[in-house]
């Protein structure tokens, strides 16, 4: 649900300072958030509009008089001078100056990508760059029936719930109950309620999928360690022509999944890609890539389901191009066929170059 109007208690907001530092907080009446430059009072944000600026207040009295009985301390807005900070802590005066108020923060409601990156997590999340590609190449749209395995912290699930909407459905299978709890809580906080079109189940993929009707899903998204072991049940519950997207992080996983898909004959030739993200600095004439980038996070593996009993069409490798024999079995590898004419030409060229080198050495 798109939220509009003044900021409300219970909402999450994103605060950004002039240096680009971001913090995400949930608004609670009477609460405050500590920063390096004083406190942000939540009451200053509740009822305010997005796009406004809030100024921190001083935490000077916390250092001078100690915390109050509730452990929070005074919220005096009096600024602490450098001399006062030095008097409180002469050896490390900068610690006191960090408590000075007057630091400005811009307040906005977080975008979905911001929320995903800042939300509490148990398992590692998929990055927005990968999630966006899954939604596009997986053709996940309103009304789709989607099966997700590996709920984790809910990053992918929240995006899937948004994409399919109330006219679609999402079934999430999560092996660990504690991760399912985190996943459910993050989604509930984002939407403001638990989505009614979401079926969250705890258990291993094969056991849970076995209880689902045949061909009951349009799309499947797998984020797990061994997706190649789940292809049989995945094919049973997906519609013919349905899209399966798997997210794996290592080349070993990628290779095993690709070979399992080809061997089964139930899936089309897979597409594999990774997405790299690089931001840029644009200030006046200083326009260049930033020094840091989000490079490899994982591989996206996309394939489609064949109809029952129909063998998939896969590209056949040439006989002279052996890409399957293990390197430990060198005796069984076929030599690449090279013509005698080509061999003679290479030998002539090398003999000529050797003679030229010898001639130069004698001079």
Automatic annotation (TrEMBL):
Molecular function per GO: tRNA (adenine(58)-N1)-methyltransferase activity
InterPro entries documented for this protein: SAM-dependent_MTases_sf, TRM61_C, tRNA_MeTrfase_Gcd14
EC number per UniProt: 2.1.1.220
SUPFAM superfamilies: S-adenosyl-L-methionine-dependent methyltransferases
Example of a GO biological process term: tRNA methylation
Origin: domain of life: Bacteria
GO CC annotations on file: tRNA (m1A) methyltransferase complex
Catalytic reaction list: adenosine(58) in tRNA + S-adenosyl-L-methionine = N(1)-methyladenosine(58) in tRNA + S-adenosyl-L-homocysteine + H(+)
Keyword terms of this UniProt record: Methyltransferase, S-adenosyl-L-methionine, Transferase, tRNA processing
Pfam families: GCD14, TrmI-like_N
Residue span(s) of domain tRNA (adenine(58)-N(1))-methyltransferase catalytic subunit TRM61 C-terminal: 115-286
Chain sites annotated for binding S-adenosyl-L-methionine: 174, 204, 223
Protein task: Catalyzes the S-adenosyl-L-methionine-dependent formation of N(1)-methyladenine at position 58 (m1A58) in tRNA.
Subunit field text: Homotetramer composed of a dimer of dimers.
Record PANTHER family: TRNA (ADENINE(58)-N(1))-METHYLTRANSFERASE, TRNA (ADENINE(58)-N(1))-METHYLTRANSFERASE, MITOCHONDRIAL
Family affiliation: Belongs to the class I-like SAM-binding methyltransferase superfamily. TRM61 family.
Entry protein name: tRNA (adenine(58)-N(1))-methyltransferase TrmI
